[in-house]
Each structure stands twice: as structure tokens, then as C-alpha cells.
Amino acid sequence: MSAYGQTPVHDKLGFDHRNAVDLAIHPDTAEGRAVMDWLRRAGLSFIAFRGALSGAATGAHIHVGEPSRSIRWGATGAPQAPHASGRM
After folding, report:
1. Tens-place pLDDT, residues 63-82
2. CA–CA separation, 49 vs 13, rounded Å?
3. Through-space distance between the first and last CA atoms of the chain, rounded to whole angstroms
4. What global pTM score does this model have?
5. Cross-strand partners of 57
6. 3-state class of 26 per DSSP?
């Protein structure tokens, strides 16, 4: 687990990550695929990142929980959360 709830990185990105967990697992590995299969069977929402994504992810990981919403509501240029339960 690389992040449990809100962290300074999420503060810097402007995301509300209080109800989410990040797993430092690349989604394309055997372990990543097994974790995602388990999450699907358990009915848990997740987002899989294959690498860094400007304004959304610092590197490959699996985000467990609903998308982190921007805490800069209405701010011009605020990052938008990616779609849930899919692979990016």
C-alpha cells in the first residue's frame, strides 16, 4: 500500500483522497491482474494507472475507491478525475 487516505502528494495534486487507497502494483503484472480480478469479484471500484498521468497519477499503481475528486471546485485548469473501474 503506497497511500492510505489523504497524503501530501494528494494535497499537492488537489485531490480529496480521504476514502481511497493506492496500491503500488503495476496493473500489467501477474500480481496486478490478480488484484484487479479480486477487486472486480468483490465489487470494489478501482482505477488502474500504467504510468504517470499529468494531474492524476505520479506513476503506475492501482487506486482503490471512487475517483479522487478535485478539492479546488470551480478552479480554472483543475485536474479532472479519470473514470472508475477501468484501465488507463
Report:
1. 998 887 776 544 445 444 44
2. 16
3. 20
4. 0.72
5. 53
6. coil
